[in-house]
Amino acid sequence: MRLAQQAEHLGYDVAWASEAYGSDAVTVLSCVAATTTRIDVGSGVLQIPARSAAMTAMTAASLDALSGGRFRLGLGVSGPQVSEGWHGVPFAEPLRRTREHVDVVRMALRREEVRYDGRHLRLPLPDGPGRALRLSTRPLRADVPVYLAAVGPRNLELAGEIADGWLGVLVSPEHLGESLSHLRAGRARAQGPSAPLDVVASVAAAPSAGTSAREDDEAGRLDALRARIALYVGGMGSRDQNFYNALAVRLGYEQEAALVQDLYLDRRHREAASAVPRGLVEATSLVGPPAAVRDRLVAYAEAGVTTLSVLPDGRTEAERVAVLRTVAEALDASGAGS
After folding, report:
1. For 318, phi and psi rounded to 5 degrees?
2. Which of 190, 208, 273, 312 could form a disulfide with 194 if both were Cys (CB 3.0 to 4.6 A apart)?
3. pLDDT tens digits, residue range 111-124?
């Protein structure tokens, strides 16, 4: 909450909260919305297998009303381990499940009677006592913006087709073009006029007063960033199905990604983090002195990112606030914010 308040003071546009199998995002966002006045609050993401589509719509309507129209609804299917192991929901056909979930959420927010005959969602259930219902409260906005977390090509196209924004992770400006091409392909299939897609890149930030990222790395100041990347590349999925590992391969780190995964799945987490190449850290993070951060902000903006979501590194709250301030100052110096 205090970090979001500081971000608001520094001029940031949106504070995101995520969930996996620890804290839920809704409770956190409720507190952030209650203790801020201007900054948007976004779920990055709410897990689709964790909630019915109707409950997602109810939550979106409530958070949007309580925040005074500042809520952004980020959604994602998570992965097979969390979906099936934590929520007990099959991971089969994740794209179809996402489409149906978003369909019902938007139908409910428009206060239509929810009648839906999908492959995974059937409302109301046939041959039972249920009846079609509509949201009993009037949402502040019927068009709460929907963001989708997506990594693979088909999921990116779906995000471009049905969402208002894309939530990207491990985004490198040098390789963003491929993702944007899939987003544009989906946008071209969207029915009716479409507003520009908000391209959100989630980027860890660990700037320093040192002379280079190499110096920071050798001093161990990038260890937390390496550990985060190792978690995604090595642990966010099985050996045969890890979307982030496949993403690292597409970024040009096939052998390194395989090694990180082998070590991580063998529960050698520190070794897996050490095996993350510095090039991958530098490509997908804000590291090095402020001048280097400024240059990367320009690169992200020129590549097509419209919202940069900063994950500030630091052991204390004061250190994380200092990172937010450094990035804000670098943005002002770069002119990329315009």
Report:
1. -60, -40
2. 190
3. 999 999 999 999 99
